[in-house]
Design brief:
Length: 950
């Protein structure tokens, strides 16, 4: 039996003897795994990260034998709260091999930790895919998808995860290994020896005994995911025991390996985007669209589109998003593009004949389709904040009804929402009647949680009345387990308990999921001390109610930061594959610091310090995270407080590189001597700099000295060229090139009257008080230009981004800071807006976009300027270069820095022909390329200046 008083220490010792992987009981690791993608929190007693499938089996068996709750976890993206508490066994980090892909039989054999996008990438060269493709596929594991019976956009055509399973290799709580299939001979199964045969005989007796009830209550429509899929044991389903396990939420057995069916990709497909006045109108057309066998029928509404980053929203409109307040993304396949487009037009004719108000566009370009799909795939994160910044939550995000009743469901749901004074942004799989939703519940107060409960109960009754399911793919877990009795009745729920005893007599496999569930309003994560801990901060957090605690509620565990490739976020996770080094992991630790019962030392927490250590402060999460977590800012804030009033504890790199603007100014007086001194191994050791790094040389003449010597031009619109530390002292040739380009474009270039600095190096090392003073002084120097509205042109992306983003949050009491942020432009932005026609540079170039430019400044102007200059630019999806300012120079970070660079960027540069230029506006990016390849990367200003007529 489950033993709530089991001996944790004894189990810990036993696991450490048998498991080579991580077995942890420390506060930091337990805090990391206390939450998933749901509203719930349950601190585990232990966390196990097995090294392979054998260790996964051993961990399950040992934990179960101790009477401890066995919680096998994949990506931790569950929105139902079914991957937390007890002994968490994380299969995602190491138990993640794609064992085999057989194109002939169209099958794959995978371990449970395989991420869906990795399987899709391996299958794509064979023209194959896995049928279920949830929007979380970049971090969802196959094991988790099996546990929840995940579905996704294409399940309307290709089926759910259960529909695409062929067999599962399992480990039972008692240590029995067995394989179950999607189709099996009942008699042969029952005749097997030992525990396996006993299990099959019990299952067959169970289904024979309850066949009538099962037929009446289960398997009524495709998205009836709630509870156990008992109907799959019926004869007409082929005695599909593997299908029964799919959706069981780890409560019956643990998956060690799965054989899955792969689907042939369509030869061609078009995306038909339908616009409607509201979601109800879009739901009403679902039966018509279904007659045309769409591959997808996904919904989004204007609330979500309005929350997209402006450049993404504009790109979506340009890609073909038609007029409307709600949209359906309908993918149609065909033998070729012409056939697919004709099928889509036939569907549109059918809609028009039926009086549908839909507007429409047909999109065949794959890049345009990708832009439109991003509107849908980011929906789960976008929906967590209303347009006015108010918080919204899951909890009623996964209900489904038969598709022909979807319109009735939405009308009824709107009425219940209005009755409770609630609102929400919706999206989902309308082709199968499943709607996802984030609602502005108040989960921070007792009264708000009572309203939440009342709403969910009424919404459940509506779903049941329409023949629906409280879960359409996310599982029941803590969020919906209690509701199963309303959906299935007491006799139906009794079947779940009976079935679980057959598989798991001691009740140790993920207890409380589906069987004997806890109340849905217990263990709400944010109903605790963290919400009331309003700590003093140096950053202002204007988008979070000026509250650091509210900022830490941004992360709802979606886990996009755990994607294994693509994007900028999160470089440290992409190398380590460790939850600790993901944006989500760091956000969870910061939240736990505020909660205070596991992480107890507040701003002095070494657990949080160590968790933030490998954050590169790249700001990729600010743009790539759907909820715009800004971990670089949180790290700077925490670091300031951690070392406050004890500066002697700071790493030496905070002094050597955090104070780089000061040392650079001193070095400029005798650059030769400074360079010799900086290159000494002793100097690097004392400064906390990696011995493997070459310290960049100080220039013989600074940019500002050159500018003063040559004098400024007159005439034309005046612009202030920002002489950042990197350009001024280390790369003055870029400043000289920028002056030439700006003057050729007709501008009069001036410099600030005195030395200025954006404070970046102090911000990135968490010396925020000093950064404030530096910024205040710089703004006073710039005041005449700011008052006059003179544009400020930045050449170094990180400094430009600091002026636009960090400065306004750091010195809110300075009235000049808003003008500085508004007036600061990149070189490309200024030139493109001015309509300047650049010289024809021509040729090909590989372009490394600086992380801060990606996150804050945008790249559209650069692309437009390069296009105008005839540069054939390739921008690899390389993410962060890995150097990231001081980070990659620090001794303890060198290995990770190089590994990040070697992931995509450095191999891409090495593969280039000599004739292809390498462009990188960021000093860090150019340095990483120079120290990792034989190539010298150049700033765009240099290429343009070289092409100017003499």
């Amino acid at each position: 039996m489950l033993n709530p008083e089991y001996d944790v220490t004894r189990l810990l010792d036993g696991l450490r003897r048998e498991v080579r992987g991580v077995v942890a009981d420390d506060r930091r690791t337990r805090a990391l795994y206390a939450a998933d993608g749901s509203n719930y929190r349950a601190v585990p007693d232990l966390v196990v990260v097995p090294a392979d499938a054998d260790e996964l089996a051993a961990a399950v068996t040992l934990t179960a034998a101790a009477g401890a709750p066995v919680v096998v976890r994949g990506g931790g993206t569950s929105m139902a709260g079914n991957a937390i508490g007890g002994v968490v066994i994380d299969a995602s980090r190491h138990v993640n091999r794609i064992v085999d892909i057989d194109p002939t039989s169209r099958t794959a054999v995978v371990e449970p930790g395989v991420v869906l996008t990795d399987l899709l990438a391996a299958a794509k060269p064979h023209g194959l895919a896995f049928g279920a493709d949830p929007s979380s596929g970049s971090r969802a594991t196959l094991g988790g998808m099996i546990a929840n019976n995940a579905c996704g956009a294409h399940s309307v055509a290709w089926g759910t995860t259960a529909d695409n399973l062929l067999s599962l290799d399992l480990i039972l709580a008692d240590g029995t290994h067995l394989t179950v299939a999607s189709a099996a001979d009942r008699a042969a199964s029952a005749a097997r020896a030992g525990r396996e045969g006993e299990l099959h005989r019990a299952l067959q007796a169970f289904v024979d005994r309850h066949e009538l009830l099962i037929r009446r209550r289960f398997g009524q429509f495709t998205r009836q995911i709630s509870g156990y899929a008992l109907h799959r044991l019926l004869p007409e389903y082929g005695y599909n025991v593997a299908g029964l396990l799919s959706g069981s939420e780890g409560g019956l057995a643990a998956t060690l390996r799965a054989t899955v069916r792969l689907t042939e990709l369509p030869k061609a497909k078009v995306l038909c985007v339908l616009g409607f006045p509201d979601s109800i109108a879009s739901a009403d057309c679902v039966p018509v669209v279904l007659r045309h066998s769409p591959l997808t029928m996904e919904s989004i509404n204007s609330d979500l589109v309005e929350r997209l980053p402006a450049e993404v929203r504009d790109a979506a409109i340009h890609a073909g998003l038609p007029a409307g307040n709600a949209w359906l993304l309908v993918e149609i396949g065909g033998e070729d593009e012409t056939a697919a487009a004709q099928a889509a037009r036939t569907m549109l004719d059918d809609l028009r004949d039926g009086g549908s108000p839909a507007t429409a566009s047909l999109v065949s370009d794959p890049k345009a389709q990708a832009v439109l799909w991003r509107c849908r795939t980011d929906a789960a994160g976008l929906a967590t904040r209303r347009a006015d910044g108010a918080e919204a939550w899951g909890g009623w995000e996964d209900a489904a009804v038969p598709p022909e009743r979807l319109g009735a469901y939405l009308r009824g749901l709107d009425e219940i929402l209005g009755r409770h004074g609630l609102s929400g942004a919706s999206y989902g799989h309308f082709g199968e009647g499943c709607m996802h939703m984030r609602i502005d519940f108040d989960l921070l107060s007792t009264r708000g949680i009572a309203t939440y409960r009342d709403f969910v109960e009424q919404a459940t009754d509506l779903v049941v009345e329409l023949g629906g399911s409280v879960s359409g793919e996310h599982g029941d877990g803590r969020a919906r387990g209690e509701l199963l009795s309303r959906m299935y009745g007491a006799d139906g729920v009794a079947l779940f308990g009976e079935l679980k005893k057959i598989w798991d007599p001691r009740g140790v496999m993920n207890p409380g999921m589906i069987v004997d569930p806890p109340r849905l309003d217990l263990a709400i994560r944010h109903d605790g001390p963290a919400k009331d801990r309003h700590v003093a901060t140096l950053f202002d957090y204007p988008d979070d109610g000026h509250d650091f605690a509210q900022a830490q509620r941004r992360c709802v565990g979606i886990g996009k930061c755990r994607q294994s490739s693509g994007g900028v976020m999160c470089p440290s996770y992409q190398v380590t594959r460790d939850e600790l080094h993901s944006t989500r992991g760091r956000a969870h630790l910061l939240w736990e610091m505020l909660q205070g019962d596991v992480i107890k030392d507040g701003w002095r927490s070494t657990e949080v310090r160590d968790g933030l250590d490998l954050c590169l402060s790249c700001k990729g999460c600010l743009s790539d995270c759907p909820v715009n977590v800004d971990m670089a800012t949180y790290k700077a804030e925490f670091t300031q407080h951690f070392y406050e009033r004890r500066p002697w504890k700071r790493p030496m790199s905070h002094w050597s590189m955090g104070w780089l603007p000061l040392w650079s100014r001193l070095a400029s007086r005798a650059p030769g001597i400074a360079n010799r001194f900086a290159g000494l191994q002793l100097t690097k050791r004392l400064g906390g700099i990696a011995a493997e790094r070459d310290v960049p040389a100080f220039a013989g003449e600074t940019f500002t000295a050159w500018f003063a010597r040559r004098g400024s031009s007159t005439g034309g619109q005046k612009v202030v060229l920002w002489p950042d530390t990197f350009t001024n002292y280390l790369a003055p040739e870029i400043g000289r090139a920028a002056v030439a380009v700006l003057e050729a474009a007709g501008f009069e270039v001036v410099l600030p009257a005195k030395p200025v600095c954006c404070g970046l190096t102090w911000i990135s090392t968490g010396q925020l008080s000093k950064a404030r003073r530096v910024l205040d002084r710089s703004l006073r120097i710039l005041e005449p230009h700011l008052t006059a509205g003179t544009p400020i042109v930045g050449l170094e992306p990180s400094c430009t981004a600091a002026l636009r983003h960090d400065a306004p949050d750091l010195i809110v009491d300075n009235p000049l800071v808003g003008a500085a942020a508004a007036n600061t432009r990149t070189l490309s932005e200024l030139l493109v807006d001015a309509g300047w026609k650049p010289p024809q540079v021509g040729g090909e170039a590989l372009v490394q976009t600086h992380c801060h430019q990606h996150a804050i400044l945008g790249f559209d102007a650069d692309r437009a300027l390069m296009d105008a200059a005839g540069i054939d630019a390739t921008v690899p999806d390389s993410g962060c270069c890995g150097l990231a300012g001081n980070f990659g120079f620090e001794r303890s970070h060198y290995d990770l820095s190089k590994a990040v660079g070697e992931r995509v960027l450095l191999p891409a540069v090495r593969s280039l022909p000599e004739a292809t230029a390498v462009l990188a506006d960021g000093f860090s990016c150019r340095t990483q390329i120079a120290q990792g390849t034989t190539r010298r990367a150049r700033h765009l200003a240099e290429l343009l200046a070289d092409a100017l007529p003499d």
